[in-house]
Amino acid sequence: MLGVLYSFRRCPYAMRARLALAYCLDANCVELREVVLKDKPQAMLEISPKATVPVLQLCDGRVIEESIEIMQFVLSQNESVSRKLYPLNQRSEIDALITTNDGEFKWALDRYKYADRFEESEVFYREKGETFLTQLNQRLSQHTCLFSDEVSLADLAIFPFVRQFAHVDKNWFENSEYAHLKKWLDHWLATSLFINSMNKYKQWQPSADPIYFP
Asked: 155 with 145: CB under 8 angstroms?
């Protein structure tokens, strides 16, 4: 048992933390506390004033507040899986791709989703995001996953954000030219890993019985 994970089902950052936990570790490795963003629990705010999910509080009291750091910590708990998902000879490349996802692509994604709140059009922000989609599609034209035919940390970290981008306008995405990316996304959406990580839970209350994940 690692500790407690504060999560929100539909948040892509929390999603990738759950994917890493489910992929790398045994069942019931954390207590999962589902957060409602408009009513964040005081217990979470006390350990993480930044007030965003995911937050992992370890049994020894340490707190990990960033999703990618949670993923890397989880990898450190399973050396054999870490060697496969995050091989030494590819780490800098994997890190660079995730950084682009979390930076330029996430910037475009947020504005594409809520274009009416920003200065430019939905199409403008979608085209900004397509720069990254094109890069991913090119990679996937060579392999079934982003770095080879084997899953890497990048696949787990980036998939939730591509899923969210595709859902903004499903019709557009389904009719887009990103055939390899669509196949990759469809594969991940159908995995038991993803399906089981998306189970619905009630808002956590201090008086509730614990829910363990995965």
From this structure: yes
Model confidence over 130-156: pLDDT tens digits?
Answer: 999 999 999 999 999 999 999 999 999
Distance between CA atoms of 176 and 206, rounded to whole angstroms? 46
Q: HSE-up of 28 (CA within 13 Å, CB side)?
A: 2
pLDDT of residue 33: 98
Alpha helices in the chain (DSSP H): 12-24, 42-47, 67-76, 79-85, 91-100, 106-113, 122-140, 153-168, 170-174, 179-190, 192-197
The reported pTM is 0.96
Closest CA to 154 of 210, 40, 75, 213: 75
Is residue 43 helix, strand or coil?
A: helix
What is the rounded distance in angstroms from the CA atom of residue 169 to the CA atom of residue 173? Answer: 6
